[in-house]
Write a structure and sequence with these properties.
Layout lengths: L2 H9 L12 E3 L6 E3 L3 H21 L4 H9 L7 H10 L1 H20 L7 H16 L5 H21 L8 H8 L14
Antiparallel strand pairs: 1-2
């Protein structure tokens, strides 16, 4: 299993990657996400972490029993949400939840086909770009998300494969909005 997925299981969402979205807000520095204090925001955040873990376990050929063992282990921070369900609503409710998440992850991973060639990869990227371009991206956050997705697609196209190795900084620089010229006007009167 990759280091990122192992860290997600053992330590939870240290970077806030799964906290971003409609159930979080930006902190006063306008850079980092802050979870809402209500239980719904925390539950959605916990669910996203568990869904990501379930997808990782599915990809490496794991089983629902292995996922259950990971999530309900008291030392695995990534399973906190499942353990809270077990404490609040009982073990059988938590197991039902884990099975539903597993079924969803298995379907998502099973329907995802890795491209077999560079030509197939370009087709996948073109289809993804089409879906991105036809999705409404409202507000400043939406426009920013769109620029970041386009940056990732640009790097993937250069790599000739959906996976690329651009750093966060390279992605941010690629996604930066066009700058406006400042300074004296060049117009003649």
């Amino acid at each position: 299993m990759a280091k990122g997925s192992a860290d997600l299981i053992l330590l939870g969402d240290l970077t806030g990657r799964y906290a971003t979205g409609s159930y979080s807000r930006l902190s006063s520095d306008r850079r980092s996400p802050v979870l809402r204090t209500d239980r719904q925001g925390a539950a959605e955040h916990g669910h996203r972490i568990i869904a990501a873990i379930a997808c990782h376990v599915t990809r490496v050929g794991g089983t629902v029993d292995q996922l259950t063992g990971l999530l309900l282990h008291p030392e695995q921070e990534g399973g906190r949400h499942a353990r809270q369900i077990a404490l609040r609503s009982g073990q059988s409710r938590a197991l039902d939840y884990i099975h539903r998440v597993w079924a969803s992850a298995s379907e998502a991973v099973g329907s995802t086909r890795a491209p077999g060639s560079r030509h197939d990869a370009y087709k996948v990227l073109a289809a993804l770009l089409d879906r991105i371009e036809t999705t409404p991206w409202r507000g400043e956050r939406g426009r920013t998300a769109l620029r970041v997705l386009r940056a990732h697609l640009n790097f993937a196209e250069i790599a000739g494969w959906p996976l690329h190795h651009a750093s966060e900084r390279q992605t941010a620089e690629e996604a930066a909005p066009p700058t406006r010229r400042c300074g004296p006007s060049t117009r003649r009167s």
